[in-house]
Specification:
- By secondary structure, the chain is mainly alpha-helical.
- It has a domain at 1-56.
- 53% of the residues lie in helices and 6% in strands.
- The protein has helices spanning 60-89, 92-114, 117-136, and strands spanning 2-3, 10-11, 28-29, 35-36.
- The longest helix is centred in the middle third of the chain and has 30 residues, at 60-89.
């Protein structure tokens, strides 16, 4: 998801433009979608003077804060997950099933992490399409 600092909304995926206000994210784009720096007056590839308006520049402090927030929330998620896992593993009948399930989840997350970006997008597209079809019924 990408956050637009102009209108304050999220756009899913890795878009070039905000789907709500139409501003580009961190670059100026010509009609042929060539990326150019924020300060460009003319497209460096095709020479077009019709460039998009980028979203407002984000101060470094806010980027650092967002990064720290992601790290802290991820750390908390891992901590609480481990606490729940330890509590479940102390129960002997559930222990073997949880170890197998944990290994399976670890393998799935590992495979997801190394998938190419285009394949991830395709999988998300298929899943969201199925969800939309269910909602239309």
């Amino acid at each position: 998801m990408t956050y637009c600092y102009n209108c304050g909304r999220f756009t899913t995926g890795k878009p070039l433009f905000c789907q709500f206000c139409g501003r580009s994210f961190d670059v100026k784009l010509c009609p042929r979608l060539h990326p150019n720096p924020r300060f460009a007056e003319v497209c460096s590839q095709c020479g077009s003077r019709e460039l998009s308006t980028p979203q407002p520049k984000v101060p470094l402090f806010w980027k650092a804060f967002a990064f720290a927030l992601r790290i802290v929330s991820g750390g908390l998620l891992v901590y609480f997950s481990l606490e729940v896992l330890v509590a479940l593993l102390q129960n002997s009948p559930v222990q073997s099933a949880m170890v197998v399930l944990g290994c399976l989840l670890l393998a799935l997350w590992g495979m997801w992490a190394v998938l190419p970006d285009w394949l991830r997008k395709f999988i998300r597209w298929v899943l969201t399409r199925r969800e939309k079809e269910r909602n239309e019924r």
